[in-house]
Amino acid sequence: MNLKKVSINTALPGKARARILIIYTGGTFGMSYDKEGTLTPFSFEYILDQLPTLKSLALEITAVSFETPIDSSNINPEHWQLISSVIFDQYHQHEGFVVLHGTDTMAYTASALSFMLDGLNKPVIFTGAQLPISEPRSDARENLLTALDIASATDNDAPIVPEVCIYFDYQLLRGNRSKKVESMQFDAFDSGNYPPLAKAGVKIDYNFSAIRTSPKPTSLNLRATFEPDVAILKLFPGITKNVVSAVVNAAGIKALILETYGSGNAPTLPWLIEELSNAIKKGIIVVNISQCPGGRVVQGRYETSKKLQQIGVISGADMTTEAAVTKLMILMGEYGPSNAKTMIGLSIAGELTA
Predict the structure, then answer these.
(1) Is residue 41 reached through a cis peptide bond, with omega within 30 degrees of 0 on the bond before it?
(2) Going by C-beta distance under 8 Å and a sequence separation of 6 or more, which residues neighbour residue 209?
(3) Sheet holding 230-234: strands in order across?
(4) pLDDT tens digits for 279-320?
(5) Which of 38, 120, 121, 274 is most buried, taking the most CB atoms under 10 A from its CB?
(6) What's the sign of the alpha-carbon dihedral 54, 55, 58, 62?
(7) What confidence tens digit (pLDDT) does each residue in 122-132 have?
């Protein structure tokens, strides 16, 4: 896929305090209305027209964009590979990165990149907008300005937030802890199992105790091989054997995210346990993730989860579905199913609480 590139130095004639790479994938953020009233992508050559206050940040910005911006509903692992490869290739030329992305699948992409960019010690900040930047009431301006500020922020010459994050509506969240929770309001994201890394008010108030410690400087390693044959089975009252069987016996399936009730509970239906047990015996990895936006899976606490534990279902602890799906894809692709089964319950990028 071809990428368009634009360079903007907002510090001229002075010296830029940091070099930041913006990656625009598509989504609502960068859209504007043409003469016919149709939403079309705007060019980053004119970003200063939309955001003249960018000059106050004094940054040397390089903006690259997908030649054909895509709706985030169409995002797939190939796009994750492209975004991560751009960051990998430009890693030593920039102090931080901002990814402009549609909100619908932003949590999936942020989760994926947190696992792909092994050894990351620079900020990768995802943001977007609920309204196009051309709209008078758009949230795009504040989201981008603050994301750039965070991506360039340092303390004693070290980046303050050396991890993959989502910045939205005055909150900075860990990317692999985030979920989209709102489609009509500006507070689109939440991380129910982890506190915000920062809140932006009159100043940006960083929650240093929640931010990952920057790893010792090492070469960045890119995990870019995916195994996409992962399925999600969400339990609900009245679910039938035919439905479960169709999912767990789907051709080629390698792993299954089982979305259970509460702290990891499932119906004690003999046929359900048998279907899951047979799947595990065939080598399918089954991971238990709670449907609740907060809390964690504790298998064995109740009788309704003890059977799952006994047949070999793996607890997903307090991972989000987005993190579990992308983590399984990457672990199986990079290390194979056997190693993935061992590693899925370990925290790789702060995605779960041990």
Answers:
(1) no
(2) none
(3) 230-234, 255-260, 285-290, 314-315
(4) 999 999 999 999 999 989 998 888 878 999 999 999 999 999
(5) 120
(6) positive
(7) 999 999 988 87
